[in-house]
Amino acid sequence: MALDTTKIEKLVRELLIEIGEDPEREGLIKTPQRVAAALSFLTSGTRSDPARVINDAIFTQKTNSMVIVKNIEVYSLCEHHMLPFFGRCHIGYIPRDKVFGLSKLARLVDLYARRLQIQERLTEQISQVVMESINAQGVGVMIEARHLCMMMRGVEKQNSEMITSSVIGTFRDSVATREEFLALIGTRGS
Ligand SMILES: [Zn+2]
Hints:
Layout: H1 5-18, H2 31-42, H3 50-54, E1 58-60, E2 67-78, E3 84-94, E4 98-100, H4 102-113, E5 116-117, H5 119-134, E6 138-147, H6 148-151, E7 162-169, H7 170-173, H8 175-185
Helix pairs in contact: 1-2, 4-5
The structure holds zinc ion (ZN).
């Protein structure tokens, strides 16, 4: 589904006027176009189907070993302020008989991050989609992120980081599995 960028450009121009700007001044002439293009990209996950990303990237592999992909960069927009939050995502899973192609987990993170989000939901959506698409035995996802809506405004806490985690299947049921996950990603994920 394509966005009506002409409509968005018009709205951004009105927004500029409302905040006291002159949309005709040199630096702002093309701003509505640029904002529309940026918004279209940054919300593209809203209009994308995860099944199409996943489809060609699942491979049959009998293994019970934990797979970890850590430090996946996350850039998203908080739905309360439409300001960025960004950080790192760590994913662990124990397959049953299927595994993901390596780059696909990162693409899934992008797909869900390019929506208006809250960090908690983003974390859960990633764990759910990993669990469901390969029928994993268990999944753990942790996201560490900084929110510009907190850093630039409001409480103005520049160094606080929000950490969210979602554990399902064996990652929830087994303390040993959960501890293995946390040890492998490291408490600070680095
Ligand atoms: Zn916010």
